[in-house]
Amino acid sequence: MKREDVYKLIDGERDYQDKKWNAETSRNFAQHSPEEWFTYIEDYVNEAKHILSRESFVTADSKAMDIMRKVAGMAVCAMEQIETRPRGYEEVKSRINQSVEIGT
Question: What are the helix (H) ranges across 21-88?
């Protein structure tokens, strides 16, 4: 599967999640802390592990990948809600700080 197709699946999952969990259906307006997001994601990962360890691959693999799509959507939602630095942020920040120190 191509990355662009994967992103379409994640976008579809996010649309579904936004319709299901919102200000009208959630006490906290569907806003969560990083700890809550990791707890929710861990719960779904454990569910997938349970399915994969107890069912035939004939049924388990597709169920587990449905959960993978859900978890990917949850991770995207968490990043939408909570500012997330780009990869390499600390390295770039360190280089900028070093340049400033050398220039002073």
Answer: 34-54, 57-81
